[in-house]
Amino acid sequence: IFLQQKQTLAKALNTTFQQIGKYEKAQNRIPIVNLIRICKFLNKPLDYFLDIDKETMIQSFMSKMNNEMRK
């Protein structure tokens, strides 16, 4: 993306535009909290960025939550 767009997105994520570039180039992983912020910023659902269907994502989340609650 262009520099101005990177700067705008970086500001929304409270990070640097250099970090956005690293996300673009897959040099750094995107923390989930930033991925959620990107989704909100771009008005896209989370599954837009993930190679997983909604049902599988929900089942995985529920399974992890159940495991955490048992601890």
Plain-language structure description:
- α1 packs across α2.
- The chain has helices at 3-13, 17-24, 32-42, 54-70.
- The protein is an all-alpha fold.
- The longest helix is centred in the C-terminal third of the chain and has 17 residues, at 54-70.
- The mean pLDDT is 87.
- It is elongated.
In brief, what are we looking at here?
This protein has helices spanning 3-13, 17-24, 32-42, 54-70. It is an all-alpha fold and 71 residues long.
Helices, strands, pairings?
Layout: H1 3-13, H2 17-24, H3 32-42, H4 54-70
Helix pairs in contact: 1-2
Poorly predicted spans: none
Helix-residue proportion: 55-70%
For the largest beta-sheet, the strand count, sense and barrel status come to: none
The total of helices stands at: 4
Q: What is the alpha-carbon Rg in Å?
A: 15 Å
- Overall geometric form: elongated
Strand content: under 5%
Which class best fits the helix and strand makeup?
mainly alpha
Number of strands: 0
For the terminal residues, how far apart are their CA atoms? 43 Å
H/E element sequence? HHHH
How confident overall, as mean pLDDT? Answer: 87
